[in-house]
Amino acid sequence: MNIEALKNEIYKLKREKNALIVAHNYQIDEVQEIADFVGDSFYLSKVCAERPEEVIVFCGVHFMAESAKILSPHKKVLLPEIDAGCPLADMVTAEDVENLKKKYPDYSIVCYINSPASVKAKSDVICTSSNAVKIVRELPNNKIIFLPDKNLGSFVKKQVPEKNIILWEGFCITHYKIKKEDVEKAKSLHPNALVLVHPECRPDVVELADFVGSTKQIIDFATASKEKEFIIGTEMGVLYSLKKLNPDKKFYILHPGMICPNMKKNTLQSVRDALLYERYQIEVEEEIMQGAKRALAKMLEMG
Ligand code: 13P
């Protein structure tokens, strides 16, 4: 089936099933194009919780669809490619959290949304890259364990120096590719450009940036800026909205390897199949669901 025919079938099935399609900023261009809402993890989790549609096709990775299901357990949440995972999310287990709690009983656990539901269930509150600093700052406890992303954790630590923050050793394999030297090289090639990076980048990369934020915050910053050139330190899917919203501005990606292999798994074909066959349905065990919902709801309340 050609692209136009596929798109038309997606729109038809979407209407028939009264479904909502949401896409993360890292999805391939064609998928972002057919989505009702495109955004970062925080924005999409809010959209899914607030919208009335009973069927949600989540074009992203597993933990994102799982979070949508936890916040709206009565809805049918579909992930077009069931093996679209997140290596960072898999770097911590519920057992690890249990052990940390035993070792540090008076610490609060702040867990990045890039984590499995079983880990969320054992955490005090969830955060995303757009609200991590605010959540850590506003928690009454000064002793925090931040997991699983050590780079986002280091960024938070810098912004909230008054708190005692223990980091976990997780990291995003895509953002980790960017080195300090890449930023220095890009700056010398484009001396007038501002450097905008995601906080999942290494601390010495974040150090050199003019702006650090979530994918949506990067897009909003570049769109609002009077500057004309930007060096982008995150997955290249963000270029879709950056270019669409700013046809007169120039964007240079920091590293040619900024492609998340999991985010790129969803295609128009798999979105169409998700709608047609109502697959792959995300389910969460009841026991895990309650705890994870409490921690996610606390993020929405605070963030
Ligand atoms: P955002 O919430 O910034 O979109 O980040 C999601 C993510 O997984 C980044 O790698």
Automatic annotation (TrEMBL):
Its EC number is 2.5.1.72. It is found in: Cytoplasm. SUPFAM superfamilies: NadA-like. GO terms for molecular function: transferase activity. [4Fe-4S] cluster binds at C86, C172, C260. It is an enzyme of class 2 (transferase). Keywords: 4Fe-4S, Cytoplasm, Iron, Iron-sulfur, Metal-binding, Pyridine nucleotide biosynthesis, Transferase. The keyword Metal-binding applies. Pfam families: NadA. InterPro entries: NadA, NadA_sf, Quinolinate_synth_type2. Iminosuccinate binds at H24, S41, Y112, I113, N114, S129, H198, P199, E200, T215. It catalyses: iminosuccinate + dihydroxyacetone phosphate = quinolinate + phosphate + 2 H2O + H(+). It comes from the Bacteria. Pathway: Cofactor biosynthesis; NAD(+) biosynthesis; quinolinate from iminoaspartate: step 1/1. Its cofactor is [4Fe-4S] cluster. Binds 1 [4Fe-4S] cluster per subunit. The keyword Transferase applies. Catalyzes the condensation of iminoaspartate with dihydroxyacetone phosphate to form quinolinate. Belongs to the quinolinate synthase family. Type 2 subfamily. This is Quinolinate synthase. It comes from Anaerocellum danielii.
